[in-house]
Amino acid sequence: MELMIIYLIVMSLGSIFVNKNHILSILLSLEFMVLTMILFVCYYLSFYMNESYLMMVMLCLSVCESVLGLSIIVLMVRLFGNDYLNSFNLLC
């Protein structure tokens, strides 16, 4: 199980480096990585502790991350007309 979780994390990092043109694909890769981390925490908590409080905190943070990413994409599409990473300049 640990090997599968490590493999999923490496795959999500690889997909970030392969799909680096669109912000939507980067955010989907980050969401996949967060879900893998939640899977790891769930696996860890099921064997060592019987508490799900940390799991709920991580799920709430994941939802907040998704909402912020979606709002950034909507703002970029309204301002620039696309979601390319190279058209987004943080200094403007």
TrEMBL record:
<keyword id="KW-0520">NAD</keyword>
<dbReference type="InterPro" id="IPR039428">
    <property type="entry name" value="NUOK/Mnh_C1-like"/>
</dbReference>
<keyword id="KW-1133">Transmembrane helix</keyword>
<comment type="similarity">
    <text>Belongs to the complex I subunit 4L family.</text>
</comment>
<feature type="transmembrane region" description="Helical">
    <location>
        <begin position="53"/>
        <end position="80"/>
    </location>
</feature>
<keyword id="KW-0472">Membrane</keyword>
<dbReference type="Pfam" id="PF00420">
    <property type="entry name" value="Oxidored_q2"/>
</dbReference>
<keyword id="KW-1278">Translocase</keyword>
<keyword id="KW-0812">Transmembrane</keyword>
<protein>
    <recommendedName>
        <fullName>NADH-ubiquinone oxidoreductase chain 4L</fullName>
    </recommendedName>
</protein>
<dbReference type="GO" id="GO:0016020">
    <property type="term" value="C:membrane"/>
</dbReference>
<keyword id="KW-0496">Mitochondrion</keyword>
<feature type="transmembrane region" description="Helical">
    <location>
        <begin position="24"/>
        <end position="46"/>
    </location>
</feature>
<dbReference type="GO" id="GO:0008137">
    <property type="term" value="F:NADH dehydrogenase (ubiquinone) activity"/>
</dbReference>
